[in-house]
Amino acid sequence: MAECGSGWRLGAIFGLCWLLLAGSAEATPPDTEAEAPAAESSTADEPVVAQGTVVTATRLPRPVRDVPATVTVIPRSEIDRSPTLTQDSLLRTLPSAATFRRTSSLVSDPTAQGLNLRGLAPSGVSRSLVLVDGLPANDPFGGWVYWRALPRLGLERIEVVPSGGSALYGSAALGGVVQLFSRPITGPSLEADAAYGLLGTGQLAARGSERWGPVGAALETELLTTEGHSVVAPGQRGAIDQRAPSNHATLNGRVEVEASPSLHLGARLGLFRENQNGGTTFTTARAESALLGANARLSTEAAGNFELLLFGRRVSFEQRRARVASDRSSEVLAAIQDVPAEEEGGSLVWTSPTWALGGSHVLGAGVDLRRVSGTSDERLFPPTASPTSTALRRTGGAQRFSGLFVQDLYTVTPAVELMAALRWDTWRNVEGTRRVEQANGAAETTTFEDRSEQQLSPRLGVRVSPREWLTLRASGYRAFRAPTLNELYRPFQVGTVLTSANEALRAERLVGGEAGFETLPFPGMTARVTGFWNELEEPITNVTLEAPLPDGSQRQRQNLGRARVRGLEAGVDWRVSRQWTALLAYTFVDSEVREAPGALELVGKQLAQDPAHRGTAIVTFHEPSLLTATVQLRVTGPQFEDDLNERGMGGYAVVDAFVSRQLVQRLELFAAVENLFNRRYLVGRAGIDTIGQPLMLRVGLRLRSAP
Hints:
single chain
């Protein structure tokens, strides 16, 4: 079908949905499953949370209505009922959340899957931090996210905090934080999902857990394979183009020990492997990762709580690039790139007991350390080989991060709460080298000078609840993000466009704020509006060059100057009846380049990959004795592929649906469909037009621990 390319058509679709529905994908509906309190037994990576409590915004459990920042929660019930197959697709049902490109992680390698919150200068490198029970999930070398390494069967909830988070979390949290929380280990259980559908897509997931007194253990696995779809637009396909198949496997294990009433210990192991084909023989990618973590939490009445978290991770990303004929009738191997990386880190966080001084205070303080090292090893196959042609290129280095933060949550009265946080960060780029070898064996090694920077990141917030049905929030913040090893040292290619790295990049910084309100106009309905304004200083972007570099790069990563990103989030959710829930959410983002020294033609341009309008409408029917059904509409406005705003991509709207019915106790039959009406829409225009996922239907069985 044709792409939805006109603004009036997009507005009409969304306006109609607003009239038909009332709800929001941003707020947690008062679902009985979502409201069930967590189990009493828990470890530090599995915090005890009461009904309506969130953790991420303040690094300690707080009632969601009392937090002086915008927080979105996707509870277990919504995760189970979502028609989406992967975590990136699930997050994109929140209009404020997106990945760099519109395409699914099923047919796009992780380098195009950086998390983008509130349109804050989208990039393959996330400007937002993703955590799993407090452990970072962003790739240590590139900052992107292995979404398929985060299976959903073991998830309890997802918390999204879409505002500057460096005051508590340091670098990588410039644009906010998304945290996935594992389900508590409550006792013997065995659960499984098995499904198969169109595009040769098969999935098998299983989770088992058990407790032996103070000791609990859980094991989770997921296997998924798909033949994918043809990603190149039909009018541009050639003889080399085929489907984009992929597969992945994950294995996660956790152990927790309640050593005493006050001491909890935990450990986890995570393994992941993914193989992808980009749609031709010589465009492939492979990713592997291994994670080991340990934690301890000590709770004392007099001194407060102490949490220690240690982790280590090893990852490897391999990519092959092709040189394609103009008519796409043939291709040859252009390069093989291998990117191994390692990461080690730890944090210690203290939370004080509540103490009184003009109200009540809860203090927090923490320190964390992290080390990252990695290289980009490239073997090149030039079109016309000569003795002086570059054959091998090896570039890499290491980074050291350290940070210290303090925080005060000050409850003046039950109706007024203040938050003040301050963090000091230091990071260093060290051991940077580049070695280039020619076909004749000649080699040249360049050593980059060690560099270091520091950053002070404050955050102030206030929450006022003048009435039971009304909550007002406002906050201001300063945040930062250090360039990744990927941006400093690794060139990359998308389609026919080659982008060069830049070892001279500096950290980018953000100054911003948000203000809004949440109201309960009548029982069963919640409405929320939040406005935000961010000024991004020296953002790292892919800048189109006037003339290609000697290696053929048409673009280069550069610190641009300054960009402004402002907008509005609005949404309501409505519990229509015991069975029916309606949700609606909308995000408007106005992004503009304000300063661009050395690239004045970009001033006034919209940031690439950043649509002004996104919206979601969801209706759910849940009657356990009959069936559960969800229908959702996702609308995305027009956007530009490139920094010059020359390659436009029209807006689109897709409908997804999910239905399930219990067959016998513990066994459930379900069906899920994405892009129900098989809409065709563009997801990329980097030298070749690529399209999004077509109709995807799958049917399966679920085994659950309880009816």
